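Input for the complex:
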Amino acid sequence: MWDFLGDQYEQILFSSWQHFSLVVQCLILATVIAVVLAALVYRNSAFTGIANSVSAIGLTIPSFAFIGLLIAPLGFGVVPAVIVVAFFATLPILRNAVVGLSGIAPSIVESARGIGMSRFRTLLQVELPMAWPIILTGIRVSAQMVMGIAAVAAYSLGPGLGGFIFSGLSRLGGANSLESVLTGVIGVVVLALILDLLLVGLGRLTTPRGIRV
Amino acid sequence: MSELIASNPAESTATDGSTGITGASILLDHVTKRFPGQARPAVDGLTMEIPAGKIVMFVGPSGCGKTTTLKMINRLIEPTEGRIVVDGEDVTEMNGDALRRGIGYVIQAGGLFPHMTVATNIGIVPKMLGWDKARIAARVDELLELVSLDPALYRDRYPKELSGGQQQRVGVARALAADPPILLMDEPFGAVDPITRLRLQDELINIQEELQKTIVCVTHDFDEAVKLGDWIAIFNEGAQLEQYDTPERILGDPANEFVENFIGSGAGLKQLTLTRVADVALSDAITGRPGERAADVLARIVEAGHGHAVIVDERHRPIQWLSRRKLGRLEVVSQVPDPKLPVVGIRSTLNDALDTMLVSSAGAALVTGRRDMFKGVIDVKTVMDAITRSQSAAVLESDQAPVGLNTGLFQAQAAAAEAAPGESAPGEAAPGESASSTADARAAQ
Amino acid sequence: MSTRILKAEAGIAGGDSAVEMPGDPAASAVPVTRARLVWLSWRGLVYQLAGILLTFLGLVIWLLTANLSPIELTTLAPAALWVYTVEHVQLTLLAAVIVLVIAIPLGIALTRKPLRFLTAPVLAIANVGQAAPAIGVVVLLAFWVGFGFWAATLSLVLYAVLPVLRNTMVGLQQVDDRLIEAGRGMGMSSAAVLFRVELPLAVPVMLSGVRTALVLLVGTAALATFVNGGGLGILITTGVNLSLTPVLVTGALLVALLALLIDWVGRVVEHVARPKGL
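Predicted:
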């Protein structure tokens, strides 16, 4: 095992970095998409219902099946991996953003409007900051989930640590196959922990002190 | 426990010599509770007798141990030291679940199980006691009637389909289901609005008049304690009993500064809720009839030296209250009733009477008895006299209080607190113990 | 503090329990007829089933009309598809049963007083474990117990225990303490309180955890093909390896439809089994 790590450490570091950056970029993209969508739907109960159904049903679609469906039109490579990871990352964030935004007491929004804040300003300065902790929880859940999905996405020959798992599988019984799989699995878990810690830190920095739990 | 319930009425009758009491007496004997990790005990050597068939209110600042004390009675919290004696029987070691099945327990908002109907909720304890279905169903209906809910309408509802006040009523019905001799209530009316709370309090008083259970009730609302309690126990930190006495005497003669502060300002006003209009002397009034010449009525009140005349109808119900000036301007007394007449019933409290007379222009109120018949006039001076009298009476009374039930305890606590704070003197439990030992002897025979 | 975090996370990761409750359309104050209320509460489920059936129909029509090569025709023969589907369902259900047998009693035990101190560490470990990629777990276990059905089942169980365990614990913890105290205060034994108060009130959250686990299992069972565990995943790998797009698409769609169907069944059960009065 140590030999394997020693021999391959450059490759491991590179793949880890790729994996991490794939996940983080997709998360940022997903957060933007989800918050915009949530801001569009949260004041209409019918749209809210649709958004919630989409995120609930989207999450039931197996990631492996989804990547298979994307390989068909898009072929192998980075694109299907990014789409899969971003898609699944969006869903929990969307749901939490909707819940967070629609859970704000109407009296608070009313008082913001009452002192002359515009609709958009209210959203930006009052509602989003108040919903932020809940949205951030959604981001953390997303991060944990898509770390694993990104590994499956490597099946489309996308970037990241998933490659170690699939290459170990394909060279089954061969030299270093177990080490390769172990590296992939443990690497993903470690990355997930690191990212979660970073997100917790981000939460500390960005949550207004008045609503910190 | 069923034995306890069964044996209890006879025993209470024997002890109290009065009929109708179905409650059991409770004795807390040197009870202490220490929670792990806390330096000071939550309840510190408390000895307290709770007389059968009475309502005892526990009040005190939050965290003073009153709720802990309450929960030790049904051993939801197990005492670290000391004994709990119910009707002469030491229940400290008996099976806690069996003990609790024989003690009604009411918590804030009723604590109803949301997934069970009203009937199922009420029927839980009878079912555990092995009653058959028909008997449970009959009991459920009977209890719903008792708490003024129509059984046909409410039996099959779920708690979320009830208002807060209704939930609380079902909570009381559930606690009474197996006809327990004791009812423990933990801030029972804390979660309902003030108007509903007053109604529920009145209903509890009515139910208690009928059932005469022993009720121990924790509240943070001193006015509620005054209204409901036969006895009030005022606790300080560590469940230190500061005063354990009747509402009258606590208001009239607070034991110390702590109690004074706790009562807060307006003790005199609070006392007004303890006295009813029927208990004070009413002044007479000159009456007149509709159709009489106003001048005749005026002549009569001038002769009597009064300022007003009360006009009553043929069934002697007051319809108008006329001043000299008004009479002077009238030709004939009309028979049109005055809708704003300041009237109070003879069963009202002095507090209500004072409210009424303060809004009337005459500074007094008309008192009516049964069928709204005119009884007399009550004025502010009468009320003030009543306050003064009851204050002096309270001081006087405390010397001749019925020692047997609980003042011994209070004095024991006070004496103990003076002698050695935090420790109750060992000899003080003697009255309670002797009572329980005679009860034991009786049970043995 | 720890409970609050626990709930917050379960509300999101453990299925969608937290989100669905306010979504109950029957809560609207507008007076509506009973039939309309029933329809409103079932509407989403009807739409979901209709969507599943329509997509399935579309897939069938496409397969019937598409110009398939002989090798694609053999792989996608109805009998073969049926075998793969049955294998897939078997894997899922067997793993689900094992998960229930393990996770529910464990969840109950961990919320009882003597073991309560273990709640936080167990959940922490389980959460870390959840971050492990499913594909990695499946392959690693195959190294350990050998390839085939049982290796696949074992890894599925490992993977799906968490949602059920967590929702069981959260479901039990969110029961109002005062109700438990009311039960104890009435003389119910702790077992009676557990079975007559706590578990019934935890049912909605627990069921949602079971549904989440089932959906997770259907998806993960598609990976069983990598360790010769059978199931619909073989269509996807075959499609990719041999560049047979119709096989790939059929496999992926069938897995997705199966997951949605299981989710639908779970929702129907939740809808029916939710205790009245909640």
